[in-house]
């Protein structure tokens, strides 16, 4: 059982505060670190991995500090976000080197390569690998010493759906085995599919923590805004406002469209096409106007 | 203190195709020049000393030192792949010391060996000139490798700074301002060479004891400091 404790950690670079007084505990199982780009996820993961000193606060792994403590890496496996990884080596040479640096040998390397199913390409140079293959070899290098804590920075970036699924299966398996797995992502669906536990970081602050269902509910129950154009905007507006799922409608004459604020996402999405059909109105445009991740997150912060 | 895996990775990175070509170019040039000089003017001790002192020791050795010293760690820090070394239970000073050994070995092979060959071509090691300059190149290799390894650890512009030091400080400044010559790896190495050659063909502005102390101090100090810097290295380029 490995527990990573982050205790009142802040990190600033000059005048910029990247991580602002975060306290959290990461225990066994898969935890997703969710937040928009630039939220401070990488800074936090770098501090968790002992590559950056917190400006204040402390990070410990089962009570031992991670900063300036090389021995801690016997227990930590790290999958960095960056691509660079000794491209002149073959996948096997790279993983063997990583094993040797842990005092292990070919056997451990072979086992790790088998875990990520990369044996078929292990004798090719890394420079010839696809993004997904690189990611798997990075995984192998992080798993070679059988660590109890696995830190992954944006591991799904640039992977195709099949590679994504494979990696998710692997991480799920690691979590089920009782390892502490923490990965960062800016994509809600990724985190939702994989992590039972989510930590949300927005603008350097710890915005939410807990079960993904609770966070998902917070996200879907927020007011949604839609921009709708139809063959008869006013008739449609009158019919929609009668239903409690609609909180407000504005007729935007300049845009020639309706701006609708819906409060019950599920009900509204069923209501809109039904109402249109019943009144013989043609829908020309239906587009969510605030689906950007930032607005989702800013709503979360306010909640 | 020495990690064979770190050494292997460093050798392979340093002797990759492109860098090996650059490393090989200057020694080839030195040998071509030496052969041409010998062909045109015959064996001449003074000419031999001029070529080995002016080109081999003053230009080639520091440039090779810059390439090998900064190249032993700079690119890894630049592209972030050093994270695979840092995330291991290996002491940071061990990583630096190992890389220093590799950088020294590469600098010696690519600078001292061709210096000796060039010396043999120029005057057949008359008056011990080939041996003296080879010893100077060996000694300078150690100090340059340590200095430039430190540069590669602390700055992303290590090659530029290294070349400025090697060419502007040692070659240009050193010939104009006599004080600058006391703080010159080249002069320290020459002091050792002077002792080996014995005659007055090889001379240094620095006395042997001073030179030896400064060589040892710079090498040890730079290596220690690089180890400390690596312990608190921030991986740049993230966020």
* Strand order in the sheet with the most strands of chain A: 6-7-8-3-9-10
The number of helical runs of chain A is: 10
Name the overall outline of chain A. elongated
Average pLDDT of chain B, rounded to a whole number, is 89
Globally, the shape of chain B reads globular
Radius of gyration of chain A: 24 Å
What is the gyration radius of chain B calculated from CA atoms?
18 Å
Pfam family, one (chain A): ABC_tran
InterPro entries (chain A): AAA+_ATPase, ABC_transporter-like_ATP-bd, ABC_transporter-like_CS, P-loop_NTPase
Keywords (chain A): ATP-binding, Nucleotide-binding, Transport
Protein name (chain A): ABC transporter ATP-binding protein
What would you say this structure looks like, in words?
The complex is a heterodimer of chains A (303) and B (239). Chain A has ten helices and 14 strands. With 303 residues, chain A is an alpha/beta fold. In chain A, α3 (106-115) packs across α4 (131-143). Helix content of chain B is 80%, strand content 0%. Chain B has one domain (4-231). Chain B has 239 residues and is mainly α. Chain B has helices at 4-14, 17-41, 45-71, 74-79, 83-86, 92-123, 129-154, 158-176, 178-182, 185-197, 208-231. Chain A binds chain B through residues 18, 38, 40, 42-43, 46, 49-53, 68, 70-74, 76, 78, 80-82, 84-86, 88-89, 97-98, 100-103, 141, and chain B through 3-6, 8-9, 12-13, 16, 79-81, 83-92, 231-235, 237-239.
